[in-house]
Amino acid sequence: MVVEKQPKKIIIAIPNSKFAEGLKKHFERKNFKVIEIVVVLEHLMETLEMLEEEGESVDGLLISSDIAKKMNNKRLELFSDTLLTLREKYSHMSIVVLSNEGKGHPVLAEIVSMGIYNIFVKSERSTLDVQGVISAFDTPVPFSEVSHYREFDRSIQWRTIETQRANRLDFPKKIENKRIEEDGDNNSDKQTIYEKKIINKQVVKKEFKFNITNQGEKVVGVPIEAKIILIGSFMPRSGTSFVAHNLTKYISDLGVGVSYIENPFQKAYTYDLFIGHEKAPAYISKFYYYTEGSSDKHSDKTTKWKEGNINWVVKNPTLEPDYTESDIDDDDMFKLLLSLRSTPIIIFDVGEDWGKEIYQSLYDIADEVFLIVQPDIPNIQYYLDSQKPHHEFLRKIDKSEKVTWIGNQVTKRMLKTDVMKELSEYMIDVPSFNSEYTYQSQFEGISVFDNNDCKKVIEDSYYPIIQKILPHEFLKKRKKGFFEKLFNKKSISVTSSNAQNEGEIKS
């Protein structure tokens, strides 16, 4: 009986995803199975740990020294320390290193000292020996071929002062994930969130679902799937914040946990709108924390503002600026999303900032995207004809299955016109409200949804949006429970009590 040889499972850790995909095809032709491509060094350990938890073994790792590079900083000390950690924790795993550092560089000496001999140095070859790289996983490079790397040029400075070695090469200390403390659901509780540097969006999607969806939350006995919702537009002042606020309040009113994230690149708005200086005077956003760190001058501040089922992530205009993309990057944004995993629904108010790479990255992992449009024919025509990159991006994605158009202040009659149909054959229309209602709501520091005269209208018109976010079974149970209360005299009596007593009775 002939036993078929199982393909070796490997990970490719190279920052150039296109190059990595090309290598993957070469490996698979040689009966290897590439189970993951990692493009950022900090994500490598998390990927290995996640695969280990899923019972997936990894036989080999192909890694490039360039994967440690961030901006102009090569961070070779981090690369070397990571390799040693991998050798200690995954000693069974074959490691092949592609190095852009030439003969005489100290990092090569450190790699050899770890017992890693499968080293391919770019400066020594005109082209990469792909077949040699693949063969190294079956037939390791002998020590005699790499022993010359132990002789290194001591004048090459590459480690920082904090990580500087003595005259001899010592093994680096095992690296650990950097941790930050975030508030848990209770003020006294703290939960540890591990920073994850994530760029590969497909891996992010997998990891985000693994970390958040698996938390599991049930409301009225129905599991609520974790979702990221983006709300934006192609033009300013379209009502994205208005729709996002009402939708956040609506979801919360249904008893589901929800986080609202304000666009950090725009002027602060929500904090003042909902009278943050009274409701959360010590609040400062996580954006500020990520960019400034925990300074002593703000030791009396908190990054948590929670009202009922809502987590508000907004800017405090007194203390915070309009951030730039150099202040907040993909890493910060994904770290923020992970820290909000206690709420299954996350609503991100993008506004018209689709030109920013960070939001195009978020689109890749979003579950639903709602694009807001107002009945302004010149602006719509401008969008359809525009050559601006962010408009081209929106036109590229605006017909996808996860994108839904919402007509703000658009009537059903307008939906039948050719102008609206050119945007989308299917559009959800939400009504306009008398300016007195919106002004009165702002004066009271509440959303229009919280205004009793407007709530029923919003519930009816926003219901098609809610159906795209929450499970049908959940909404069916909620509707059934509503009618049961409606025809139960005792329930009517309780509901008409003040909000505080109502909460006490229900609990």
From TrEMBL:
The family database entries (InterPro entries) matched by this protein are listed as: P-loop_NTPase
- This chain belongs to the protein called Flp pilus assembly CpaE family ATPase
* Native organism taxonomy: Bacteria, Bacillati, Bacillota, Bacilli, Bacillales
Where on the tree of life does the source sit, at the highest rank?
Answer: Bacteria
